[in-house]
Amino acid sequence: MPGKTTLLAPSILSADFTNLKASVELAEKAGADWMHCDVMDGIFVPNITFGSFIVQAIKQCTSIVIDTHLMIVDPDKYIEDFAKAGSDQITVHLEACPHLHRTIQLIKSLGVKAGVSINPATPVSLLEPVLADLDLVLLMSVNPGFGGQKFIPGAIKKIMQLDAMRMEMNPEMVIAVDGGVTEENAAMIVDAGADALIAGTAFFRAPDPVAAAKKLKGLE
Q1: Is 38 assigned a ligand-binding role in the annotation?
Q2: Which among 2, 10, 41, 79 has most CB atoms closer than 10 A?
């Protein structure tokens, strides 16, 4: 997609939780398109983060899209809570949903955009039965659970495969990439077909987050 605008979604997991409002305002100032909220339960992934109350707090600080990524088992139990808290889009993991189509329909029934994420070892072909129903797919380019990991190079081929699939089945669907995104590899990821970049360390831990955001978005 020549000339397309890259969406930037700073991951709140890397923000300063002693001053969450300032972190959100910094992301807005830098031109962020989404605020990415990583929800982990210590079961599906080896880490615990936060619940819907943090999403609610962020919603009170900003008008930009709240992008909630549920890295949890049995997400159906909590989807309504996160929708009510202010999530504009909710992404669940294919690996955590035995009845994935039903979960997607639950998200949509709450007036929220629906996304599905897959781990690095999960082939994109498994998304084919639900691809037409999705607003976004989040490809993990690290194994989920912790920030600051290195990008797995094999993700580039998966982005290209998914881009070809969506052109045939759901051209409006957004491809997002999460994990190890940096100023150095952002252009390569976008060139492969990604529309949105999830950036935690690369944004919030940068010496100049505003300058980092411009580079990540391909504006300089």
Answers
A1: yes
A2: 10
- Is 52 labeled as ligand-binding? no
The percent helix, strand, coil of the chain (3-state, each to 5) is: 40, 20, 40
Query: Is position 50 annotated in a ligand binding site?
Result: no
Q: Domain map of the chain by residue range?
A: 7-216
Is position 178 annotated as part of the catalytic site? yes
In the DSSP assignment, the letter for residue 121 is: T
Query: What CATH number is given for 7-216 in this structure?
Result: 3.20.20.70
Please say if 163 is a catalytic residue.
Answer: no
**pLDDT tens digits, the chain, 220 residues: what are they?**
445 689 999 999 999 999 999 999 999 999 999 999 999 999 999 999 999 999 999 999 999 999 999 999 999 999 999 999 999 999 999 999 999 999 999 999 999 999 999 999 999 999 999 999 999 999 999 998 877 789 999 999 999 999 999 999 999 999 999 999 999 999 999 999 999 999 999 999 999 999 999 999 998 7
**145 marked as binding residue:** yes
Identified catalytic residue from 33, 41, 67, 178:
178
